[in-house]
Amino acid sequence: MEDSAQEIQKANEAFYGAFEHLDIHRMDDIWWHDDDVKCIHPGWAPRLGWPQVRDSWVVIFNYTQRMAFSVCVIEITVKGDFGWIVCREQITTSDGDRPMEGTVMATNLFERRDGFWRMIHHHGSPYFTPDTALPMAPSAFV
């Protein structure tokens, strides 16, 4: 049997496969359908509970023509029946005929129930390289 980190890695790959194919039915299979699942897309308010989370994917899929990911896994952590992946998403998408690229740092949390790992939380935040980041005064963090 595969160890838990490999199983979580496969669940993470399935998530990005569903996302890349803009396939709501595959996305349905990735998530637990609970009131306590959460999703935070870059620039969006948090989506709380399965109905809101699912609706967010429907909106994204309905307004996206093409989506491609290159995912760099930074770390996989497993604690019993919970595991999470911190990764960097390099995204290529299109708005009409105009391609767009962006980088997002993401944390994907999974829970194992009855031997199955499913997503319970996705949080994506814009990632800025040093040459694209806005300057911040140290006092901004105080």
Core attributes:
142 residues; alpha+beta; globular; Nuclear Transport Factor 2, Chain: A
What would you note in describing this structure?
By secondary structure, the chain is α+β, with helices and mostly antiparallel strands. It has one domain (4-127): Roll (Nuclear Transport Factor 2, Chain: A). Helices cover 26% and strands 42% of the residues. It is built from 3 helices and 6 strands; from the N terminus they run ααββαββββ. It has helices at 4-20, 24-30, 50-62, and strands at 38-40, 47-48, 67-79, 82-95, 98-113, 116-126. It has a 6-stranded mixed beta sheet with strand order 2-1-6-5-4-3. Helix 1 (4-20) packs antiparallel against helix 2.
How do the strands and helices of this protein lay out in sequence?
Elements: H1 4-20, H2 24-30, E1 38-40, E2 47-48, H3 50-62, E3 67-79, E4 82-95, E5 98-113, E6 116-126
Parallel strand pairs: 1-6
Antiparallel strand pairs: 1-2, 3-4, 4-5, 5-6
Helix pairs in contact: 1-2
